[in-house]
Amino acid sequence: MGPGTRDALIDAAAGLLDEGGVEAVTLREVGRRVGVSHNAPYKHFANKETLLAAVAARELQRRVAIPPETRERRPSPEEELRATMHRYIAWAREHPARFKLVFGAWSVDSQELGTAAHSAQAQLTGIVTAAQDTGALPPGDPVRLASLFRALAHGGADLASAGHLAPDGKGHASPEQLIDDLLGYLRVAAEAAHPPTSRSGPASSTSSPA
Questions:
Q1: Residues forming a β-bridge with 166
Q2: What is the pTM of this model?
Q3: What are the tens digits of pLDDT across the range 127-177?
Q4: What angle in degrees, to the nearest 10, is found between the helix axes of 111-133 and 142-161?
Q5: Alpha helices (H) along 74-169
Q6: How many CB atoms lie within 10 A of CB 139?
Q7: d(Cα 156, Cα 104) in Å, to the nearest integer?
Q8: Which CATH number belongs to the domain containing residue 151 in this structure?
C-alpha cells in the first residue's frame, strides 16, 4: 500500500474523530471505512496512538500552510498575524475534537508530530518577530508574546463554543474581536515604547537671541 492509503487512513480517522471523539477512532473501523483489511492499517501505524499522532501532525501542518490569496496579497506582519489567529480560531470552532487532540497530553513519541509542532511554533513566533520589527508589537520575548496570542485564541474559542462569549451576548465580543483588541492594545504599547521623533529636532541651545 502506498502513501495514498496512509492519507486515506488519516482522513478516515479524522472523520471518526469529528463524529465521536477519540473513543470512536479504532484501526479496525478506519480500515473498514477505507475498504482495506482489518490488519492493513497496522502496516502504517503501530497502534491507535500513532494513528492519532499522524492526524494531529497533519492538522498542525495545515495550520502552517499559508492560503494562496494571502501570499498574493503580501499582507503586513500585523495583518498576517491577525489572519493567522482568526484562521486558528475558526479551525478550533469547526473541528473541536481535532483541536483538543492536537493540544492534549501525548504519551506516544512521534517524530512526525514533533516536527509539525516545531514548525507551527516557529511560524507563529516568526510572524510575531516580524510584527515587532515593524513596530506593530512591543519589544520582548517573541515566544512569550506568541503564547499570549495562542492562549487568547484557545480560551476564546472554548468560551465561544460553550456559549460564554458572543458579540451580542456574554463578553460582548467574538474570539476574533478579542484578538483584534489585543493587537490594538499592543500597538499602543509598541508606540509608547518607541515614540516617533520630531522631524525638526530639538532647538539648538547655541542660537543667538534676536
A1: 171
A2: 0.86
A3: 999 999 999 999 999 999 999 999 999 999 999 999 999 999 999 999 999
A4: 110
A5: 77-94, 96-102, 111-133, 142-161
A6: 13
A7: 17
A8: 1.10.357.10
Mention every residue, 6+ apart, whose C-beta is less than 8 A from residue 49.
Answer: 107, 108
Name residue, grid cell 458572543: 166
Q: Which residues contact 182 (CB under 8 A, 6 or more apart)?
A: 148, 149, 152
Residue 73: band (very low, low, confident or very high) from pLDDT cuts 50, 70, 90: confident
Q: Per the structure, how many domains does the chain have? A: 1
Report which residue type is found at 173: A
C-alpha cell at position 76: 503586513
The grid coordinates listed for 39 are 490488519
Provide the pLDDT for residue 204.
Answer: 45
- Contacts of residue 133, defined as CB under 8 A and 6 or more positions apart, other chains included, come to 77
Domain assignment present for 33: no
Write down the mean pLDDT value for the chain: 90
16 and 25 in contact (C-beta within 8 Å)? yes
